Amino acid sequence: MDTTPVISFNNTEYAFAYKKDEDLKKAQFLFSIMGTQWLVNLGLKLTPIAMKWKLPFTNTIIRKTIFRQFVGGETLAETATVVKKLGEYNVQVILDYGVEGGDDGEHGFDHATEEFIRVINYAATQSNIPFMSIKVTGFSRFALLEKIDVLMQQKAGTLMKRYLTALELLPQSEKEEWQRVQGRMIRICQTAGEKKVGVLVDAEETWIQGPVDALTIMMMDTLNKGGVTVYNTLQLYRTDRLQFLRDSYEAAAERNFILGAKLVRGAYMENERKRAADMNYPSPIQPDKEACDKDYNAAVEFCIDHLDKIAVIVASHNDSSNLLATQLLDKKGLPHHHPHVHFSQLYGMSDNITFNLAKSGCSVSKYLPFGPIKDVIPYLMRRAEENSSMSGQTGRELSLIKKEIKRREM
User: Which terminus, N or C, of the chain has the lesser number of Cβ atoms within 10 Å?
Assistant: First the structure.
């Protein structure tokens, strides 16, 4: 007798069970606004100015609308309410200290490092927070990452060979600066390993990703021997990432560590295409959505075919990709809560996926940013931009919310 749970991402009763009627109507209002392109464009222009000038009521308006929908709170303590509520529905949390980029000075980088460690220590006390995320640009100078990446591209060989050769070409002052960056990465990841909290290293733009990949692989080689502490983020909207996944697997098999792979579609598409056009080099981005979907699903399948050496996080808002992962597990006779398979969506989005996966027994989480409103504005602006198409994510969110409101009224 087949006891495999049937998953339907159209089940709004499960999707919004954690939301009160009032919260659901507020979400409906917000997504309705976000579906109005001219309003979004106006907000994207005016919000940073209003924050800079500290105009009256700006903080209050943001806090009660977009901040409340997509952010867990301004402090770690404020996230506790959200974490507890999600836990009641078997949904876990990936904590993200939502400050994007650090001060281009050692003091700022050291401060960001201490904040990441503080998040790890807090997560270790909460049974419902198995992961936290970091950005290497939070504790490293962007220009230094870019310089190392350029040097790496000029060399041949494996990722690590190109990385080590590039470091040798740096002047002494920058070698010492990079040693401090490596030291911060080691501190963060070693603390996480001791506290048994997973570290998800965010992806960056292609022109600084090389040294980030190398640092992350080094940490995996050290800390992912007996279990999984460190995960790299692979953006499958890049044409080279499926092969990079395969190469990373080969390295893991050779060095006998578990590859942590968080699979996303990507976050910097417009910037990447513009830079490629401006600097006259081939775009690293997939030519169309179909090509991106094909590589993403191939990456999911590759990971699930190699769960002995890969721990995968399917971080997707795409119904088909999430369903594919569960179907592959079913086909192999593996449980939906396999220890090397996790699912995740952003807080405030795709509840229909998250909560229906949780209902089927999957290990699933919400990516939960937190931080002062002024610091998470860049994150919130991206959420507004990517949700501004009514034919895309916003239209989907709004239709599901309306469906649930109607269901409750019957």
Answer: N
Burial 174-196 (b: 16+ CB within 10 A, else e): beebbeebeebbeebbebbbebe
Give per-residue pLDDT as tens, 370-387.
998 888 887 777 777 665
Instruction: Give phi and psi for 269, each to the nearest 5.
Output: -55, -50
391: buried, middle or exposed (CB in 10 Å: 19+, 13-18, 0-12)? exposed
Question: DSSP assignment, residue 66?
Answer: I
Q: How far is CA 345 from CA 70, 307, 350, in A?
A: 11, 21, 7
User: Burial level of 359, CB count in 10 A (0-12/13-18/19+)?
Assistant: buried
Contacts of 131 (CB under 8 A, 6+ apart): 92, 93, 94, 95, 123, 197, 198, 199, 200, 231, 313, 365
CB under 8 Å to 399, separation ≥6 — which residues? none
Rounded to an integer, what distance in angstroms lies between the CA atom of residue 279 and that of residue 271?
12
CB 272 within 8 A of CB 283: yes
End-to-end CA, the chain: 35
Other residues' Cβ atoms within 10 Å of the Cβ of residue 73: 19
Listed residue (33, 86, 27, 70) closest to 402, CA to CA: 27
pTM of the model: 0.94
From 180, 199, 99, 183, select the one nearest 141 (Cα to Cα).
180
